[in-house]
Each structure stands twice: as C-alpha cells, then as structure tokens.
C-alpha cells in the first residue's frame, strides 16, 4: 500500500494506491482543515477488496466500485455534501450483487434545517427533514420512551427545541432475488415518523410479502403518544407458513408509569378472537433493589375458551434472582400452576400442569387438521438455591394423537443429583407401542461421552406414527423392534445394536405400491450401518434386495457399499388421484452397485423395464407454454428458470447429484412396455408409445442423470384434442426417439397416422370429367400422417395425406392413379395440403379448390 500526503495552509492533499490483489484501490483526496469542521473531496476507486483473504471476514466476499465524497462540511450534526457509491459490485458466497448506485445527500439550510436524502440502490428511499442535530436523534426519541418507562438509569437529554420528519420507502427490485431467490415481487413498504418535544409517532405499512412458503399479508405498525401513555400496535391480516395459518395476529399495548402493558391476539378468518394473552412488566424504582414485576392479566383465550387467572400472580425479578407467586390459570379440570416455595430469590419452584389439552395450542396452527392432541400432566421441581440448578420432573401425555393417528401414552422423566449428570427417560406405551429410552446426559464429557442412552424398542407400530409422515405413508401395519446403545457426542454419535422389521407393511403414497418387509435387520455397528440382504417385497411377492454397508463416523457423511437387486419388482402402482404428476404401473429388474460418498456416489449396473409396465407422465407446468403478463403474451420453455417457481428449482436441485458422482447404468426397455405423456392436461393431448430400447444412464454436467441411446417405437398413438374434436394418430413402426442426455432435449422422428375413410370426390373434381366423378364418391382408406421431427419440446410438425398402395385394390386402378397424382400435386403447396388435412380431420371429407363451387355429396351421409 502506497500513501502520500502534503499539508499546506491546513489543506491536505492525499493520494494512495495498492496493487495487492486483496486490497486493490486508487485514492485521491483533498481535505480543507481551516474551518471548524473539515471539508473533503475524495475519489476512491476500489478495484478489489477481499475481507476474507485479509482475515476480516469468515466467508467469501469481494467488493468493487467507485466511492466519491464531496462535503463542504463534515459537521456530524449537520453534514453538508454528497457521498456516492457508484456501481457497487459485491460478490458473496453463492451470488453476485450488481447494485444500482447508493447516493447520500445532505444539504442543511442556513437555519440548520436538515435536508437529507438517501437512495440505496433504488431499493430504499429515505428523506429526513427538520431542525435537529443528527447525533441527537437517538436522545430525542429515547427521551419520549424514558418519560413513560425507564429502560435504564441513563438520562437521555434531548435538544431544547427540535422537530423532525422521516419518510422511507422500500420497493421491490429484481436484484433482491439474487440473495433472496424465493422472494416474490411486492408493493411499497412505507415508514413515516414525526418527532418533536410534544410528539413521537411511527407509522409503518407492510404490503403482502411472499417468501417461499412464508406469507405476510398487510401489516401495520403504529407508535404514538396519548396523554401519559406511549401506545404501540403491530398487526397483520394473515401470516402463513406451510400448514400454519394465523389470521389477524396482533400485539397491542402501551408504556406508562414504568410499566409495559401488552396483549397478543390471534383471530380466525371471521375475525373472532381465538387466542389471547395479556400481561405487564413493571419497574419498582422506589429503592435500590430495582425490582421488576411480571404479571399475567385475565382474559386469556386458548382455542376460543376463556381461562381463569389468579389476579395475585406475579414473577418478581431482582439482583438476587427471581421468585414466582400465585402464577396460576385454569379452565374446568385443566390447570397450569407455577409457584416458588418461599417468596425469596432462588427459592425452589414447582411447575404443576394437569390435564392440559395439547389442542389448546395446536388448533392455532391448523383448524382443518388436528396436528397433535393429548392430555399433558407435569410435576416438576426446579431448585436454584444450590451452586447448580437441580431438576426433578415427570411429565406424561395421555392419549397422544398426531395427525388423527392415535400413538399412545408418552411418559418423560428428568432429574439430576449432581451438577454434571442429568438422568432422563422416555417411555411410549399403548396403541401397540412399547418403547423405552433411559440414560444420562453429561454437561462435561465422561469417558469422551456427552450422553449414554439405551433404546429398548420392544414394539413401534408403524401405523401409529404414519401421521407424522404428513401423508407420505398410508395403509401401514407391522412393527419395528430392537435395541440400540447410543453414546458419544452430538458431533460424533455412536450407535450399537439393531432394528428388526416384524411384518412391516406400508405404502408410499406418491408411488402407490405397498411394500412388505417381513423380517429384515438394520444393524448399527462401530463402522456405521449394515444391511444384510434387506428385502422389500411388492404386492406380487417380488423382491428388491439391498445388501452391504453404509459406513459413517459421525452420521453426517456416509460412504456407501451397497448392491440393489430386483426381479420384476413393482415400485410404482399409483392412480392419478394419488399422484397427478405420474401414474400407472412400473415393473423393473435391477442389478446395481452403489459405492462411494453418498453425495457423490458411483452407480453401475443394469436396469430393465418390463413389458407389463404402463406408466403415464403428465407435463404439468412443463414444456413449451404461454406466459402472460401486463398484456404481453409470449411462448416460453418452462426449463427457463426466469419463469419457474423457486420451490421447483429447489426440488430439481435436490434431485441432482454432485458432479463428482459417476453413473453408468444400462437401461433396457422391453418392446411391450407402454409409456404415456400427457402433453397438455387442459386439452388432453397425449402421447403413448411402446418399443424397444437399450439406453445408458449417465451423469450430465449439471449433476442431473441423463439417458443416451435410441428408443425404437413399434406401437403407440398421439391423441390430438381441439375443442370438440378428438383424433387419434397411430404411431408407425420404425419411429425413433434419440436421447443424448436430458430427456427433454431428445430428438424425435415420429410418424403417426390417422385413418380417414373418406371419398376423394372434392379432391379431384376439377381434374376429372363430370361423367366419371361418380367413381370418386366411394370412400377410400386414406391416412393423414402427422410427422414430428427435431427437439421433443419444440418439434417441427408437418402433415401429409397418403393412399397406401396395399389398400388401393378397393377401387379401379385409374381412380387410384388419379388420386395419387392429386396428392403428389398438393404436396408441392403446403397451404393446400394443410387445408385438406384439417378438412379430413375436422369435417371428415376433402374440400374443393373452390368450396362454394362444390355440388357433390362429399361423402357426407
């Protein structure tokens, strides 16, 4: 780094530069030190700044851009000038930010009236005006808060006379998707504030914001003074995250006389109060003890039901600790009580919960599905009087239900007699379950173990826990049994033992095929997991056998040494109702070797798809489609991620393997295996093919598994639907699909025929004498050919009409020859050919060269 400066008459001329690749910059600056506050002009060209390489930051970051400063005064209270960060370029782990310029401008007038404007890359716009020193804004705001609630002993002294208005807008900018890929465009976020000796207000408006599965709808925040109270409120129309739906959640309250009052409310979609909780935090500043009181107010609602609250309840906090008195609430036979044994700091306190229904809270998450229910009972004593906390607690959940599936009774215990060792136990019983976990957790490792637990799984009913799979499993029966010793640390656990299946039967909903594991063993060893001919039977009794080891040291990285062999096994047998993306039946045989790191495996072997396969894939939101926005209609390829929902990108990425993986699998398709593709679910256009193929599955450059080879078709059809019209084109033998990677990039050469038994009268009437036209009223077995060539997603489509030579014997040779001559003639004029094609398809006849001159019957009867 090279720096040079000169100082003459209190004017400093500074230049600097660095060619170090991690801090590469050029600097020119002029500072005038003659006034009370310095003036500065500076230009800093940051060619590259890498804080990670300089040990200033732990992750990837590189910064570039041009910073220009021009300040007539650097008065911290009233700066006068402009600061610009032009074309900022920031590279961080996983993305590059090419931001718009950041501009800060401060131009106070002669009466010290602030006029500040900030434009942060056209994302945030802020304007601050008023008579207030910048360094005193915090004191001015806190003086209002402190007049209602003393946060600390600090005295916040505001200026004698001040006023300020602040307005800020945050707007959506496409650059936000660079590091927030799941963020959808949103309307303007607005913030406004007014501050003067008699006024303190903050108003904020939040529009609908969608980020992945999180949705925030119409939020409002208000802070304002009303008499002796500083009031606040924050509310939303709705917040949702997956199944969690919170309608009209709000927090309201105020600060008054060193107390904070608050009430949290959640309503239902009809604006009826469903959950409510209120309380207060108060300071007692009358003596040096500075006690703080926390109280719970009456009016508690849990799932629409009002709970009675002991009005004397309080938690008292002070320098010596805390104690709890009369902290009790109840409804019917349900109650929650927390009480210190003595009103003294660090006195032991007891927690007593009786018959509390879990649905009191789980109903808040979902009204439509009962996520969990059961009756919770807790008896716990926590003693903080010793040098370490002592816990002695028991808890049980009776009649535990998860997603409408009964699980049983869950019992838990926890206690410690010493500072370092906590003993814990879990027991699940009832509903055919019998599981116990007992052991110890060590705050300081003992014999290199943070924990030592014994799992005795006498019986785990798969049916009882299938609700926890969120619908992924159904029709489950059978058990898991076994014993496992669990020890080690959270970063390197050790499992020793085995689990055994006992007629375990379940159906993966999206696959539809039931899987039976009669008596299979999963062994946990010091090296990892061992599968010894682990057999999965389908509904026909055919088996997939997995054999080998999964080695791991910490259960985060797995090294595979497996084989997967199957003979005419049926992994898929699903209806369209259960899986609209793909449905039907898949029968396969396999002889696969899967080795190496689980995230980058080496997969070799053979896979055969058998004749009895009947599988249909529906291209929902796939393939070429129409994108309509702001009155513009354009055709898109849905693989263009510009138009794909980010959740689809995440799923597609999760299905890719590391580029370090290796896949070399021979895929054979038997000639009577049938595959269908629903090309347009709206119109019903669909393609069904069968034929022989010898393909190879290999890894693409992006980590996706692709196919190479030729699929020679011997049967099938293309069904075309247009309004009321439905026509089925039979695929001619010899048609081909050539694959060279992504199946969506396959090359097709398909010819399909629609059999049109129509008369050639209108086709030839201009070329045939009137006396001979009656011979052309006889229906002939024409074929309308649909030809698809090129990329499967964007094929070149053409049509033809033929009269097969082997079917011409139904008519005189002269008639057949005349028809052939006419067909040859119209092939030279695509517009006429296409007119005749669609006439044959739609009208069931040909049309004359001049339709209005036709006088024949056209074969319509």
Short key terms for the protein model shown above:
mainly beta; 30-stranded mixed β-sheet; 8 helices; disordered C terminus; extended
Task: Describe this structure as you would to a colleague.
There is one protein chain. With 861 residues, this protein is mainly β. Among the domains are: 124 residues, no CATH class; 104 residues, no CATH class. The protein is built from eight helices and 54 strands. The strands form three sheets. The protein has a 30-stranded mixed beta sheet that branches. The chain has a 22-stranded antiparallel beta sheet that branches. A hairpin with a 2-residue loop joins strand 15 and strand 16. The protein is extended, with a radius of gyration of 38 Å. The protein starts with a strand and ends in an 18-residue tail after the last helix.
């Amino acid at each position: 780094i090279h720096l040079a400066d000169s100082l003459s008459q209190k004017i400093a001329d500074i230049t600097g530069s660095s060619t170090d690749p991690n801090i590469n910059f050029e600097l020119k600056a002029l500072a005038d030190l003659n006034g009370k506050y310095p003036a500065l002009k500076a230009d800093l060209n940051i060619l590259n700044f890498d804080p990670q390489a300089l040990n200033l930051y732990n992750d990837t970051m590189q910064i570039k851009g041009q910073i220009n400063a021009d300040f007539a005064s650097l008065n911290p209270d009233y700066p006068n000038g402009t600061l610009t960060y032009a074309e900022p370029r920031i590279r961080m782990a996983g993305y590059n930010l090419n931001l718009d310029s950041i501009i800060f401008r401060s131009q106070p007038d002669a009466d010290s009236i602030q006029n500040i404007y900030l434009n942060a890359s056209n994302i945030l716009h802020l304007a601050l005006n008023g008579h207030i020193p910048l360094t005193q804004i915090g004191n001015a705001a806190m003086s209002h808060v402190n007049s209602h609630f003393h946060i600390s002993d600090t005295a916040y002294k505001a200026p004698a006379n001040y006023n300020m208005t602040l307005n800020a807008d945050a707007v959506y900018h496409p650059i936000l998707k660079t590091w927030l890929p799941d963020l959808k465009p949103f309307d303007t976020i607005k913030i406004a504030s007014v501050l003067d000796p008699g006024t303190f207000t903050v108003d904020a408006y939040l529009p609908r914001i969608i980020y992945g599965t999180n949705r925030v709808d119409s939020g409002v925040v208000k802070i304002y003074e009303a008499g002796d109270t500083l009031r606040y409120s924050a509310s939303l129309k709705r917040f949702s995250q997956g199944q969690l739906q919170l309608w009209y959640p709000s927090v309201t309250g105020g600060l008054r006389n060193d107390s904070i009052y608050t009430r949290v409310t959640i309503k239902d979609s009809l604006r009826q109060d469903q959950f409510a909780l209120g309380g207060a935090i108060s300071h007692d500043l009358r003596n040096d003890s500075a006690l703080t009181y926390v109280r719970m107010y009456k009016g508690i609602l849990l799932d629409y039901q009002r709970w009675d609250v002991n009005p004397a309840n309080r938690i008292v906090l002070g320098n010596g600790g805390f104690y709890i008195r009369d902290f009790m609430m109840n409804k019917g036979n349900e109650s929650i009580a927390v009480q210190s044994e003595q009103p003294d700091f660090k006195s032991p306190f007891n927690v007593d919960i009786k018959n509390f229904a879990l649905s009191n809270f789980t109903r808040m998450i979902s009204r439509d599905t009962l996520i969990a229910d059961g009756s919770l009972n807790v008896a716990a004593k926590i003693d903080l009087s010793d040098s370490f906390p002592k816990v002695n607690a028991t808890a049980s959940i009776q009649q535990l239900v998860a997603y409408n599936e009964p699980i049983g009774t869950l019992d838990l215990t926890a206690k410690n007699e010493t500072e370092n060792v906590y003993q814990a136990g879990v027991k699940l019983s009832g509903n055919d379950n019998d599981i116990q976990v007992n052991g110890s957790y060590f705050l300081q490792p003992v014999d290199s173990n943070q924990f030592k637990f014994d799992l005795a799984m006498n019986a785990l009913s798969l049916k009882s826990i299938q609700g926890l799979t969120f619908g992924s499993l159904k029709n489950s029966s059978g058990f898991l049994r076994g014993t496992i010793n669990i020890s080690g640390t959270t970063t390197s656990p050790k499992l020793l033992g085995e689990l055994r299946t006992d007629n375990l039967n379940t159906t993966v909903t999206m696959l539809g095929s039931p899987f039976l594991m009669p008596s299979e063993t999963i062994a946990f060893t010091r090296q990892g997991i061992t599968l010894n001919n682990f057999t999965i039977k389908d509904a026909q009794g055919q088996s997939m056998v997995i054999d080998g080891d999964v080695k791991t040291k910490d259960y985060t990285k797995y090294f595979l040494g497996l084989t997967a062999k199957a003979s005419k096994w049926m992994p898929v047998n699903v209806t369209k109702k259960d899986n609209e993306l793909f449905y039907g039946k898949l029968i396969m045989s396999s002889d696969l070797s899967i080795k190496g790191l689980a995230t980058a495996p080496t997969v070799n072997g053979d896979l055969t798809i058998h004749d009895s396969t009947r599988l249909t894939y529906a291209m929902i939101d796939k393939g070429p489609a129409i994108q309509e926005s702001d009155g513009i209609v354009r055709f898109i390829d849905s693989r263009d991620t510009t138009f794909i929902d980010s959740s689809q990108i995440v799923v597609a990425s999760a299905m890719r393997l590391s580029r370090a993986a290796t896949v070399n699998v021979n895929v054979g398709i038997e000639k009577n295996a049938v595959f269908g593709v629903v090309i347009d679910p709206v119109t019903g256009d669909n393609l069904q093919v069968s034929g022989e193929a010898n393909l190879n599955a290999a890894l693409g450059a992006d980590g996706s598994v692709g196919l190479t080879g030729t699929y020679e078709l011997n049967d099938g059809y293309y069904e075309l639907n247009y309004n009321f019209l439905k026509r089925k084109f039979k695929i001619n033998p010899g048609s081909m699909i050539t694959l060279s990677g992504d199946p969506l990039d396959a090359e097709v050469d398909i010819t399909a025929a629609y059999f049109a038994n129509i008369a050639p009268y209108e086709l030839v009437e201009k070329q045939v004498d009137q006396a001979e036209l009656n011979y052309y009223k006889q229906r002939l077995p024409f074929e309308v050919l649909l030809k698809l060539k090129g990329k499967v997603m964007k094929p070149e489509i053409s049509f033809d009409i033929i009269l097969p030579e082997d079917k011409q014997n139904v008519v005189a040779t002269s008639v057949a020859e005349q028809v052939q001559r006419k067909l040859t003639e119209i092939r030279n004029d695509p517009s006429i050919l296409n007119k005749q094609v669609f006439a044959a398809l739609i009208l069931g006849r040909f049309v004359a060269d001049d339709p209005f001159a036709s006088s024949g019957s056209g074969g319509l009867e």
